[in-house]
Amino acid sequence: MNYHETLKKIGLGNHEANIYLALVELGPSLISHLSRHTGLHRPTIYKALPALQTKGLISVAPRGKQKLYAAEPPEKLRALLDALRTEVERSLPELQRMHELQKKRPLVKVMYGRDGIAFTFEDMLHTLKRSDVYYRYTSLKSADHIDRYMPKDWRAARAAKNLQRFTITDNLAEHQKKPDMNRAYKFVPPGYDLFKYRINQLIYGDKLVITDWEHEIEVVIESPAIAGFHRAIFKILYDLL
């Protein structure tokens, strides 16, 4: 068994472990004996001894003008282990809080090009459960772009999952005018320039997705709070239209 590594795991430094094991093996020893046995220089030993005394692992007895150093019973190592366990237990609540905070922190991704935008379509099918609802702001201009990025048979897969959708738009593309029980539309009144920027916004699950069709860039924000906030705004506007 590698006792040296075990001692290091419970808080002893490299030199401290060497010196303590040497004293266990040699018995009470002078600094000169420790130096010969461990191969450590005397200044290094003198520097490590106070830490071993603080940990309660060695004792010192005078021998004339010199001092004898002796290892305390290895049972004393239990105190170090218990102290380490107590320290870990005290740290756990704060570490857990930090971990939970990290899990709740929004995840932001930027997707580029056709493949990046197409990824969102696949992700919707993967994220949403059967009969779930998603929300989107779109426009006639956006609808003309969507087919270029949509994976093959995506609409059929969406229908198979019975996904419900609510849309705020300025107008409908021809393919959107076909009857569909799973969708509902509200229209922005004429004169508003909400969709002149060719921007599409989508809210599904815990994600908010903003698509810039002109530059083929998509920003995905994964956050229950942010998605919930924008979902609430969508519903308010939808009810007012």
Q: In brief, what are we looking at here?
A:
The chain contains 9 helices and 9 strands. It has helices spanning 3-9, 14-26, 31-38, 42-54, 77-104, 113-127, 140-149, 154-160, 224-240, and strands at residues 58-63, 66-71, 107-112, 133-137, 164-169, 183-187, 199-204, 207-212, 217-222.
Write up what this structure looks like.
The structure is a single chain. The protein is built from nine helices and nine strands. The chain is of the alpha+beta class. It folds into two domains: 3-77, Winged helix-like DNA-binding domain superfamily/Winged helix DNA-binding domain (Arc Repressor Mutant, subunit A, Orthogonal Bundle); 106-240, 2-Layer Sandwich (Endonuclease, Chain A), CATH 3.30.870. Strands 3-9-8-7-4-5-6 form a seven-stranded mixed β-sheet, with helices on both faces. Strands 1-2 form a two-stranded antiparallel sheet. A hairpin with a 2-residue loop joins β1 and β2 (66-71). α1 (3-9) packs across α2 (14-26) and α2 (14-26) crosses α4 (42-54). The termini are far apart. The model has no long low-confidence stretch (mean pLDDT 86).
Key words describing this protein structure:
241 residues, alpha+beta, Arc Repressor Mutant, subunit A, Endonuclease, Chain A, 9 helices, 22% strand
Blueprint (SSEs and pairs):
Layout: H1 3-9, H2 14-26, H3 31-38, H4 42-54, E1 58-63, E2 66-71, H5 77-104, E3 107-112, H6 113-127, E4 133-137, H7 140-149, H8 154-160, E5 164-169, E6 183-187, E7 199-204, E8 207-212, E9 217-222, H9 224-240
